[in-house]
Amino acid sequence: MIDKNQVLSFVKENGPVIPRDVVKEVGGDTFFVGAVLSQLVDNKQIKISSAKIGGSPVYYYSGQEHKLEILYKFLHEKEKRAYDLLKETKILRDNHCEPVIRVALRNIKDFAKPLEVVLGERKEIFWKWHLVSNQEAEQIIRGMLGKELQEKKASQAQEEPKQEKRYEETTKKEPKTEEKEPIAETKQEKTPRQETLEPEPRKQSTTQPKKEEDHELLSNLNSVFDDKGIEILETEVIRKNSDIEMIIRIPSPVGRLRYFCKVRDKKRCNDKDLSSAYVEGQMKKLPVLFVTTGELTKKAKEMQDKEFKMISVLYI
Q: How do the pLDDT tens digits run along the chain, 316 residues long?
């Protein structure tokens, strides 16, 4: 019988530890030691890491968070990049990070803690280093937002002199325009002609084709998927006839695989289109199929070969 108090005491003195370390100290089987550790976690007596050493997480006591750095060498390369960047800056603004870092921050849960900040009518996510207190994080975020506000004011102040110059130029030209009365008359004569160029029947004819084509992209996509044996599980139309998101099943030699599918009706898709699809796929923990009616830009193709290797592209 494994003594639960003995296990707890060992974690307090030696954490972070893995089950194998505990077995060496208290004896028993790794399976039963793991069960005891899980009970201690459920009772909130100890904590468990998200990152793993081999196939096992580490167990540690509250106050030992600074020792979690032992997990660094077991992180993936991109996760190490996010770790180093966050440790250096203490706070990162999610929508200011490149897509690869945004995904990595969500994966290193032991070190990156999300903070939801309300800015006016919108909410934004900031990431804080796990050893930074909420009070310190708040001060840093306030400083970041204050600096951004000052930069906006400075740019507006630089634009004001330009506007004043334009105003001065227009006021100088005003006496010349007032003397030329025939020009004013010709402008007034043109207005009724412009009204007659757009009769009501033409306005009606421009709106009708859009209604008929609302689901053209979706129907074309269904036809292509049917030919390739791709099964659609979920569909969400983001923008009619231009942007669709799906969860699909694609046939493969090892069975049917689930994919996140991003569909764009766009002549040229750039690296931002790919990065957005990549982040969504990572959030859903699925590989990505990017479907487009156009083509990828040169930069997007380069990014696909380097950063977004998990994205497959289908041209229709």
A: 678 999 999 999 999 999 999 999 888 888 889 899 999 999 999 999 999 998 899 999 999 999 999 999 999 998 999 999 999 999 999 988 888 898 899 999 999 999 988 887 788 899 999 999 999 999 999 998 887 777 777 777 766 665 655 655 555 555 454 444 444 443 444 433 443 334 444 444 444 444 444 467 888 888 899 999 999 999 988 887 788 999 999 998 888 999 999 999 999 998 888 888 888 888 888 999 999 999 999 988 888 887 788 899 999 8
State how far the Cα of 213 lies from the Cα of 245, in Å rounded to an integer.
18
Fold of 4-71: Arc Repressor Mutant, subunit A (1.10.10)
Q: At what angle do helices 19-26 and 4-14 cross, to 10 degrees?
A: 120
Return the CATH fold of 75-140: Arc Repressor Mutant, subunit A (1.10.10)
Kindly report the pTM of this predicted structure: 0.57
CB 274, CB 308: distance < 8 Å: yes
Query: Two tokens at 298?
Result: 């040169």
Fold of domain 216-315: Trna Endonuclease; Chain: A, domain 1 (3.40.1350)
Matching CATH topology for 75-140 and 216-315? no
Q: Where are the domains of the chain?
A: 4-71, 75-140, 216-315
